[in-house]
Amino acid sequence: RCTVDDRVTRVAWLNRSTILYAGNDKWSIDNRVVILSNTKTQYSIKIHNVDVYDEGPYTCSVQTDNHPKT
User: Fold this and answer.
1) CA of 69: how far to CAs of 8, 43, 57, in Å?
2) Which of 7, 11, 22, 33 has CA 20 to 30 A from 67's CA?
3) For residue range 4-14, what is the model confidence (pLDDT) as tens digits?
4) pTM of the model
5) In this prediction, what percent of the chain has a pLDDT beyond 70?
6) Interatomic CA distance for residues 70 and 65, integer angstroms
7) Interior/surface letters 17-43, b for 16+ CB within 10 angstroms, e for the rest
């Protein structure tokens, strides 16, 4: 789950350097990865049937007024 506010102009979920979602656009070919919410306050994904190979850093990346943050 990633908490966002109304200053956020763009959002993305990444695993290592791989983009899973950019806004509502799915970049991952893995059918188990789904977006749960993309609202003004929350940007969340879910991985169904998670296993050990899914381990690793997951990053919510946001852009506010052309300033990227993670």
Assistant:
1) 10, 14, 16
2) 33
3) 888 888 899 99
4) 0.82
5) 96
6) 14
7) eeebbeeeebebeeeebebeeeeeeeb
